[in-house]
Amino acid sequence: MSGDDAAADAFALAGNEHRVAILRALLDAHADPETPYPTSFATLRERAGVDVSAQFAYHLDALVGAFVAKTGDGYRLRYPGWKAAAALAAGTYTDQPAFGPTPVPGECAHCRTAALHASYGDAWLAVACHDCERVLTRYPFPPGAAGAHLDDGGVDALLAAFDDRVRSHFALAVDGVCPECAGRMQTALATVDDATANQTDTRGDGHAIHAVADCETCGNHLTLPVGCALLADPRTLALAVDRGVDLVDRPYWCIPQLVGDAHVDRTGDSPLEATVSLDADTTVAVTATLDVTHAAN
Ligand SMILES: [Zn+2]
Ligand SMILES: [Zn+2]
To answer: What is the span of the domain harbouring residue 47?
Structure first.
């Protein structure tokens, strides 16, 4: 079977409401300490809400193999089944919450005005400055999960989760691992002209040099201000703490020490290289392939 055939089979398996209900019931059982997992046929049928036993058995059998494993203790999700169920739970394919533009705390990293607004729709979250009109960041966030964070703690809770999620994605991408599919990413520095030739949704506006990462497997393309690439480097974060520079507690789109062009110097053209200054005495160098080196100070 080719990879395409296997993928088509995987979609076909989940293309039925009872099978979706079974995957969700297994995910719920996995997350619920009160429910045995692996889960018995009877418990799973009850939780999936399929009344006719023969119908339930038929659809469960169809999932066993690719998505579900049958063990001596009952049924459990295999990794592809867990991924499919988690995507359904995140509402990637169904829910469509939206809000904004809504005023949010923090100063613009470019003009230092407290005029930031967040908006969310069609699975993308953006933070923009209504004074200088720059988009500070724009990145996808799963809709069902966005709805859950909004219900729990409003826009503040969603922005906190968004900050954590995107930082972790930056860290993976800068290290050459795709945050979407775990495939290999090619990493590089690029000027704004190079960067705008591609999809540049994560870059934010107003930066001369970007860090870019392209996935060889799924085509995922990330572009971020070169300063944000340093957030992936634990030594830089430790150095910043040592220098009294807050890179951790404020959201990544509000880090003027790292993201602003005033703190970025181009130190090589071929290959492109740059330095980013943390303060007047401390700079960090970024190579053409996004390796970070610290000059002795
Ligand atoms: Zn601004
Ligand atoms: Zn990928």
So the answer is: 3-89
Domain presence at residue 152: no
Alpha-carbon distance of 157 to 172, in angstroms, equals 23
Whether the CB-CB separation of 38 and 75 falls below 8 Å is answered with yes
C-alpha span between 83 and 199 (Å, rounded): 26
| 256 Cα to the center of ligand 1, angstroms | 11
Read off the pLDDT of residues 159-199 as tens digits, 9 standing for 90 and up: 999 999 999 999 999 999 999 989 999 999 988 665 444 44
From the CA of 63, how far away is ligand 2's center (Å)?
26
* CATH number of the domain where residue 29 is located: 1.10.10
Residue 67 placed within a domain: yes
> What is the distance between the alpha carbons of residues 23 and 84, in angstroms, rounded to a whole number?
8
pTM: 0.80
As for how many domains the chain has, the answer is 1
Residue 124 falls within a domain, yes or no? no
Q: What is the pLDDT of residues 55-85, one digit of tens each?
A: 999 999 999 998 999 999 999 999 888 888 8
Ion ligand 1 neighbours (CB, 5 A) are: 108, 110-111, 129, 131-132
What's the gap in Å between 143 CA and the centre of ligand 1? 27
